[in-house]
Amino acid sequence: MYVSLLGMSGALYLSVFEQAGDFERLVTRHCPKERFVMADIDLSKADPNFRKELLAHPEGEKISACFTCKTCTASCPVSAVNAKFSPYRIIRLALFGLKKEVLESDFVWLCSSCYACQERCPQGVSITEFMTLLKNMAIKAGHAPAGIRAQRDLVRGQGRIYAIDEFDNKKRNKIDLPSLPTACSVVKVLFPES
User: Fold this and answer.
1) CA–CA gap between residue 143 and residue 100 (Å, rounded)
2) N or C: which end of the chain has fewer CB within 10 A?
3) pTM (global) more than 0.70
């Protein structure tokens, strides 16, 4: 008989297994190795100022409380369908100071901001806000995906993602809805440089 401690969802579970390989099979089946292995990290590219920069933001000040339990990744619905996405990995890369790897990767953009990770974090780390901080930093550094940049440009140019024209207003009028303005002046508040 074999006894093992397995940390999952912020709690420790004592598991008793009949054979030595049972534990490994359980972990491999429910927690694919790709979600947690970080042997490919090259710390020679680390920027120690990146960690300080992150911790200076309200969204990043609690991130150093992460004690790598991986509850965030185990709770993440995106990670369940894309084994390469791991909030835990993004946090570790950021704390190691790997600015380029974090801000230039597509992984921060996969976060759906569902708050599952944050609600289950035993340390109370604001993971979702941290991911938003990383997205904002990536945009400022010019590393946003084409779709995000296109949406930003549409909002900047016309005040909304979907342009309203006279054809749309005719359809609205046919079903007794009021016409909408084709131009949006509020965009000047959002993008004063436009």
Assistant:
1) 10
2) N
3) no
Look up residue 36 and give its DSSP letter.
T
CATH 1.10.1060.10 positions along the chain are 38-140
Count Cβ atoms below 10 Å from residue 67 Cβ, excluding itself: 12
38-140 homologous superfamily: Alpha-helical ferredoxin (1.10.1060.10)
Helices (H), ranges, the chain: 20-30, 48-55, 71-75, 77-81, 87-95, 99-103, 116-120, 127-140, 146-158, 166-174, 187-190
Residue found by looking up tokens 């933001």 in the block: 57
Task: Say how far apart CA 18 and CA 57 lie, in whole Å.
Answer: 49
Tell me the per-residue pLDDT of 115-150, one tens digit each, with 9 for 90 and over: 999 999 999 999 999 999 999 999 999 999 999 889
Question: Which of 62, 54, 60 is closest to 98 using CA atoms?
Answer: 54
